[in-house]
Amino acid sequence: MSIDLDDTDRAIIRALAEDATTNAGELGRRLDLSQPACWRRIQRLREAGIFRGTRVDLDLDALGFGVSVFLGIKLATKGRVSLEDFERAAAAIPEVQRIEHVLGLYDYRLRVVARDLSDFERVLRRRIMTLPGVGNVEANVLLSEERRPGPL
User: Fold this and answer.
1) Residue 71 domain-assigned?
2) What is the largest CA-CA distance in the chain?
3) What CATH code is carried by the domain that includes residue 28?
4) Residue of 41, 77, 87, 109 with fewest CB within 10 Å of its CB?
5) Nearest CA-CA partner of 107 in 130, 77, 129
């Protein structure tokens, strides 16, 4: 379902993307809307599928995961191993935070977290390299991350 978004809708989306716990009353005051009008707009956006859920933004460092690594994975045997088998097996690894099927040099891009580099090496050797169909793997260690606002 596609809907036309006005500036107020975009402001609501930006505000909720920043802090999804903001209630309609507070958000309405910021945007010069009544609480019911703001709530109706939020509901319309939700029904249109603009919001896919509410998530908690975890501080991985505070949880003891000081290393994030992006892996480019090229499958060696696409014919014998289905993409679904690879995705299912990768999703079962707790350290794999994100699985992206991509077009280009690699077939998949994974974001993996670990406590430190030796923990990452353990995950790589014992879990990632044993995934069905894994061929070439390229690792890029995340040095820093800046969160950018979305396209609105």
Assistant:
1) yes
2) 59
3) 1.10.10.10
4) 77
5) 77
Alpha helices per DSSP H over 4-152: 7-18, 24-31, 35-47, 83-91, 117-123
Contact 115, 64 (CB under 8 A): yes
Decide: 120 and 67 in contact? Cβ < 8 Å: yes
Whether residue 105 is predicted with pLDDT greater than 90 in this model: the reply is: yes
- How far is the C-alpha of 118 from the C-alpha of 116, rounded, in Å? 6
Domain for residue 135, yes or no? yes
The DSSP code sequence of 67-94 is EEEEEEEEES-TTTS-HHHHHHHHHT-T
**What pTM does this model have?**
0.76
For residues 54-82, give the mean pLDDT.
87
Number of compact structural domains in the chain? 2
